Every structure is written in structure tokens, then in C-alpha cells.
Amino acid sequence: xxxxxxxxxxxxxxxxxxxxxxxxxxxxxxxxxxxxxxxxxxxxxxxxxxxxxxxxxxxxxxxxxxxxxxxxxxxxxxxxxxxxxxxxxxxxxxxxxxxxxxxxxxxxxxxxxxxxxxxxxxxxxxxxxxxxxxxxxxxxxxxxxxxxxxxxxxxxxxxxxxxxxxxxxxxxxxxxxxxxxxxxxxxxxxxxxxxxxxxxxxxxxxxxxxxxxxxxxxxxxxxxxxxxxxxxxxxxxxxxxxxxxxxxxxxxxxxxxxxxxxxxxxxxxxxxxxxxxxxxxxxxxxxx
Length: 288
Prior knowledge:
CATH architecture: Orthogonal Bundle
Strand content: under 5%
Helix content: over 70%
Oligomer: single chain
Order of helices and strands: HHHHEEHHHHHHH
Strand order of the largest sheet: 1-2
Largest sheet: 2 strands, antiparallel
Number of strands: 2
CATH class: Mainly Alpha
Number of domains: 1
Distance between the termini: 52 Å
CATH topology: ABC transporter involved in vitamin B12 uptake, BtuC
Number of helices: 11
Mean pLDDT: 84
Low-confidence stretches: 284-288
């Protein structure tokens, strides 16, 4: 029974990875940009929640935080990312790495270097009993929120005209250009959606993780592992990979606590040995 509880906790952890990795995958798939600054938006989401939590309450802060960070994503795309769509991806990697370092230092200047506590709403504390199992009330709520965000993103990409253009832009940007459709406005929306989801992850998981300046640098590595395992260009590949990574890490910690972190990278190596494109990866053409 304890093992099943660890699996559920692993799914929560996978949802946490999913919120960051899905936006990262979309930005790279369409723009061809390796965005190492993605973790900085996740950290900003957590820190903005910390700032607003005491003023307007947890729930409103968790809504305002990703919206504010998504607005920063608009400026990020307009003045930085847009310059790197048609150049060597290594350049975007270097620039966004520098931005991630700058963002981390700005966080230290504004909020300080010490970890900040986040008070969980009293109504979400405690556990619920389902049959013979005991689960954290807040973690179950997180699973529901992640599922809602996942379904909403899927519906946006699969059931709307916007989503059809984005999917076509991932698969064949030349065809989209030949039809007279500019991908640029869609890229703005994708970047805002991606960094907004990362900030939502930072805000929602702030009460159960450590809010500190280097948190963005720590999560971006795992997010890239998830994207690599899932495969570029595959929505469900990233979803499945995030949940798989979370469960594998949770179960490994149950049996061998010291190997929890290493299990993620062992999983990546095994997947790439047999599926170099990732679990559900597709061939992606360069953004034009």
C-alpha cells in the first residue's frame, strides 16, 4: 500500500515536471530555440506567489503569478527569442543561459539568497483517506489542476484553428509559409503559454518545495530530460515521459533513496539506446 502511495506521489511529481517540460518542448519544436531561461520563469512564478500570497491570498496569487510571468514572456519573445529563430540553435542556448544567470542574480537582489517559506492555505492541509490509502489533500488537488491544464492545452492544440496552425508549423513550416500564414504571431502565443505554464508550476508547487534562487537552474535539467525522453514534436510523448519520470523517481526513492536522482538519467539513457528520437518523437523541420 505504501508503494501505491509512492506511485501517486510520483504522478504528482510527474505533473510538476509536465508543466515545465511541455512549454519547453513547444517553444523548441516551433521556434528551434533551446530556451535555458525557461527555468527562470518557473522560479519567478514561485517568487511572485510568495510576494502576493500575504497580500491577496494563495488562490488569487496562484492565478495572478502565471499571468504576470506570461506577460514577461511576451517581452521575452519580442526582444530576445525572435532574433534567434533562423540561426544556429547554439546561439540561443548561450543567450538564454546568460539570461537564466542574470535572472537568478536578480532574484537574489530582490528577494535575497535565503529560502523563503510559503504558507499553504489551511483548508488544503492534512490528508484524505481513500479506502486503505492516505493521500495529501494538497497533492491530490495538484493532480486535478495539472489534469485540467493538460486537457485545456490539448484542446487548444487539437480543437482550434490556432492549434492546427501550430501543429502544421511543427511538422512543415515551409508549407505553412506557402499558404501565406505567418508563424510569428503564433510563436508569441506559444511562448506566453509555455512560460505561463512554467510559472504556474512554480506557484503551485511552492508550498511543497524549496523556494530559493537556484530553483530554476535545478528544474531546467530535469525538464530537458523529460523532453528528450518523450521526443520532440510529440505532445503525448512529453506527457507520458513526465509521468514516467515522476513515477520512476518516486518508486526508486521508496526502494533506494540515494538513487532517486540518478534513476532519471538512467531512464533517459535506456530510452535513447532503443529510441533515439524519444518515446514518441517525430521528425522536426527547422523553423523558417
